[in-house]
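Database export, one record per block. Field names are fixed; values are copied verbatim from the stored entry.
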Amino acid sequence: MATAGYSVAIIARPELFTKPTALQAEGAPLPTATAIGVRALGGRDLASGLAMALAPSGKALRTAIAVRVGADLVDLVVLGTSLPDATARTKAAGVAAAWGTLCGLSYLAAGD
């Protein structure tokens, strides 16, 4: 549910994502296109987080977890190579790797 909570937060306030990732400079206005992209990312993560929270154990839950891990892997690669600031790239890749690892570990407990 932590994924879903963070997702709702960045949908409501994209700045929570854009500032730490250096997609928005301090004091600069948030470009509409950037806000749209962050909200779409939040929507994706909200859907995958809710799927993980609500899926019954077994194949449905493992599938939901695999989708989330795949999304985290994409985030790791895209954010870790594309953000405008090296420090932000490193932090974002680390966060994506941590979420992916936690979700991957939960795959082991997902049941048959």
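Remark 1: Residues 59 and 112 are 7 Å apart (CA to CA).
Remark 2: The radius of gyration is 15 Å.
End of record.
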